[in-house]
Amino acid sequence: MTRETILNAALGLGLLAFPLWAYFADEPFMITLATRVAILALAGVGLNIALGLGGLVSLGHAAFFGIGGYAMGILASHAQSYSPLMETPFLIEGTKSMPVIWLTAIVASGLAALVIGALSLRTSGVYFIMITLAFGQMLFYFAISWPAYGGEDGLSIYVRNSFPGLNTLDPIQFFLIAYVLLMAALRFSARLAGSPFGLALNAARQTAERVETVGIVPYRLRLTAFVLSGMITGLAGALFADLNRFVSPTMFSWQTSGEIMIFIILGGTARLFGPVAGAALFITLEHVLGGLSEFWHIYLGLLLLVVVLYARGGIIGTLAGQEVKHD
Amino acid sequence: MTDPVLYVRNITKSFGALKASDDVSLDLRPGEIHALIGPNGAGKSTLIQQISGGLQPDSGTVHFLGQDVTALGTAQRARMGLGRTFQISALAMEDTVLQNAMLGALGASGRPFRFFRPVLQEKALRQVAETALDRVGLLDHAAIRTSDLSHGQRRQLEVAVALTLSPRAFIMDEPMAGLGASGSRRLTAFLDELRHEAPILLVEHDMDAVFALADRISVLVYGKVIATGSVDEIRNHAEVRRAYLGEDA
Amino acid sequence: MSLLLLIEQILNGLQFGVMLFLTAAGLTLVFGVMGLINLAHGSLFMIGAFAAAATAAATGSFLLALAASLAAAAAAGALVEVLVIRRLYSRDHLDQVLATFALILVFSEGTRWVFGSFPLYLNIPPALSGPVTLPGGIEYPVYRLTIIAVGLMIALGLFLLISRTRLGVQIRAGESDREMIAALGIDINRLYTVVFALGAALAGLAGALVGAIQSVQVGMGEPVLILAFVVIVIGGIGSIKGALIGSILVGLTDTLGGVLLPETFKLFMDPASATAVGSALASMLIYILMAVVLVVKPMGLYGARA
């Protein structure tokens, strides 16, 4: 076992053990914190497929996070007001069922990623960064100015959505849902990295010209990665909205995109468990520093600067040393 | 005489006022090594790019396996069997030697969009990759990270990746560049054999290798082919001696 | 809608565009010369606005406030260039994005710390307040007209600076060939600091000018930054001319779209939903414009560099 594998196992188990401890210590708030870590890490796992594996610096993943959130908000708000989404040409009703909401979130954010990716991937480098950021902002303004679903104020959902056989109102049960989805996404992500597709995508990040000369079109690889990436981040958005029982345009904001990226960098770019480590550190900082100072973002900013300038491997890179899977 | 595997007809390509390719025609016949030589800045790289698909000519056509491929992209030409090596190694440096060769095999298989099964467990792909590595003498280094290879080994890996495609024609851009004397000799011997599998369009500065290997030589100067002929014809060509060999040989 | 209203909206669009240009010019220069993507450019815009508001409150002079915005933003720009940005030129874009995102966090929270969360207000000087009657009987605020004039003058100044001066020669050399610049014996570190501070000063001035129309608050820079990105994507990275044309296009599209789309929808919808649909669509219009440019010219209207 490599050090990274051990570290990953420790992170995975730690994220499970902490809320279980909180459950027995009767600290429901701590369970909620752990749930946030799991959900934000899931968003990061999504972005990491584009960013880490594909080298696509998307600064617009809030778009998919927000679409996932609004998929939940829209479906659930129609269900709670007993009004259908649409009646013609066929009837679509709202729903409070998590699996249906998740599926909708995944499909909707996947479609959005297909459109945004198809346009943005015509360019590369700085253009790509600016364009993804701009499309994210477009959805942000759209959400603000579209009054049907709350506009600037967002949408509140009174009761958390349901999952067959579970009581989702119980914090620990909801945590377990998020945790299982996170683990599934990590497993998917690991499989993807080792798959034929992952090999080609990873090579396209390093030398696109080579990939073309063996007969594979890098654009298609990247677009596929971008869509998969958007889908997972979209799923995270639906869960995040369910955790808060609230969606608002903030989910679409550029800060959200930046934060999802921060999870990855703090944890370690292209590391499988990087987003888990990063999201855990982020939430811990928010909780600890946020309690000390209203202006804790200054410290977060300074920490991020130090990591970018001096500790580029992030937490996992620092603790586990050089990436081992390629050696 | 058999039909050429690859030929270009009257290719012209300008960058602003500079004519990088000026009405270039040349062909590559089965079983031959056709060397393309010329001073720096003669337009060799631009020509190679147009043949492999990275650049579109302003006018003229590229034909491969009897088909007009001028409008096709690099990847499409590669899938038809055009194998290419780069002057400056274009390899996935973070990946292992085996992974680089597997990439070639994966491209050749035409099925990169598979998301679950570990690629290293794909026996068929692995065999193609390992055979190619074995042929260039890199099989022992399969598990090494590519960035840890020596310069000469990276040149070998370039060739191995091209081999995994089982190409119908090779385009090699200065494969000898930076190789020591023994490395050049080994690669020369290897290419000498390889021509029987598929013809090679060889861009090369190493004149010893060119004269040892080439069936025919074309000389490119200022974007124009000033001569095409056998080794002896080129050696004795007055214009070539003046324009090119005079300085160099 | 009347013609007068339309002309007024066109002027508003111009004013918005000119303000975007001041922000985008610095961004595109910094990218063209140093190859750096700077997310913290919006923070410099904000710093300019706060410096102006604070100076105006202390001295009562609008001109001093503008001078302060230039000085404060240039100083902040030079400082971060020397302390942080300089280390990023050789890094990949991801590192640049993250480090400058970190700078946003520091700048925004730092400003909140010093000035608090409540917005500040910068008053339009009496000489420039009130409307002026333009030919054709259009009443238009003098101040906004002044912004347009100042912006166009600065655009002209920038073109002259780049085409006629020694610094301009160095900037153009830096865009095409970094090694040449070193070979010419130019102190490249100083050049980079100067270019960065120049871009910062322009953003700061834009912040101050806008600050008198809107409120001055933390977070005011980033929406402008993102619009400046749209401008640059449309105009082409590194091109001042592209930035100017892109800015005007974006300014006009956004302003006119916001007015015309709801009006257009009213032709075949009831007014309430026309306003809703129209303004929602209008908010997306410049991004749609960007997408169209991308499809037609992926490198932007005047872009040469990848």
List keywords for this structure.
heterotrimer, A: 327 residues, mainly alpha, ABC transporter involved in vitamin B12 uptake, BtuC, two-stranded antiparallel sheet, 13 helices, 1% strand, globular, B: 249 residues, alpha/beta, Rossmann fold, 2 domains, 6-stranded mixed beta sheet, 4-stranded antiparallel beta sheet, 24% strand
List the topology elements:
The complex is a heterotrimer of chains A (327), B (249) and C (306).
Chain A: H1 3-24, H2 28-53, H3 62-80, H4 98-120, H5 125-145, E1 155-156, H6 171-194, H7 196-206, H8 208-213, H9 218-244, E2 246-247, H10 254-267, H11 274-292, H12 296-310, H13 314-320
Helix pairs in contact in A: 1-2, 1-6, 2-6, 2-9, 2-10, 2-11, 3-4, 3-5, 3-9, 4-9, 6-7, 7-9, 10-11, 10-13, 11-12
Chain B: E1 6-15, E2 18-28, E3 33-37, H1 44-52, E4 59-64, E5 67-68, H2 74-80, E6 82-85, H3 97-109, H4 123-135, H5 151-164, E7 169-173, H6 181-194, E8 200-203, H7 207-213, E9 216-221, E10 224-229, H8 231-235, H9 238-248
Chain C: H1 3-34, H2 41-59, H3 62-83, H4 93-115, E1 131-134, E2 138-141, H5 142-164, H6 166-176, H7 178-183, H8 188-211, H9 221-235, H10 240-266, H11 271-296
Antiparallel strand pairs in C: 1-2
Helix pairs in contact in C: 1-5, 1-6, 1-8, 1-9, 1-10, 2-3, 2-4, 2-8, 2-9, 3-8, 5-6, 9-10, 9-11, 10-11
Can you walk through the features of this model?
The complex is a heterotrimer of chains A (327), B (249) and C (306). Chain A has 327 residues and is mostly helical. Chain A has one domain: Orthogonal Bundle (ABC transporter involved in vitamin B12 uptake, BtuC), CATH 1.10.3470. Chain A has 13 helices and 2 strands. Chain A has helices at residues 3-24, 28-53, 62-80, 98-120, 125-145, 171-194, 196-206, 208-213, 218-244, 254-267, 274-292, 296-310, 314-320, and strands spanning 155-156, 246-247. In chain A, strands 1-2 form a two-stranded antiparallel sheet. The model of chain A has no long low-confidence stretch (mean pLDDT 92). Chain B has 2 domains: 1-81 and 167-249, P-loop containing nucleotide triphosphate hydrolases (Rossmann fold, 3-Layer(aba) Sandwich), CATH 3.40.50; 93-166, no CATH class. Chain B has 9 helices and 10 strands. In chain B, the strands form 2 sheets. Chain B has a 6-stranded mixed sheet, with helices on both faces. In chain B, α3 (97-109) runs parallel beside α5 and α4 packs across α5 (151-164). Chain B starts with 5 loop residues before the first strand and ends with a helix. The model of chain B has no long low-confidence stretch (mean pLDDT 90). Chain C has 306 residues and is mainly α. Chain C has one domain. Chain C has 11 helices and 2 strands, in the order ααααββααααααα. Chain C has helices at residues 3-34, 41-59, 62-83, 93-115, 142-164, 166-176, 178-183, 188-211, 221-235, 240-266, 271-296, and strands at 131-134, 138-141. In chain C, β1 (131-134) and β2 (138-141) form a beta hairpin. In chain C, α2 (41-59) crosses α8 (188-211) and α3 packs antiparallel against α8. Chain C is globular, with a radius of gyration of 20 Å. Chains in contact: A-B, A-C. The interface between A and C is large, with 44 and 44 residues.
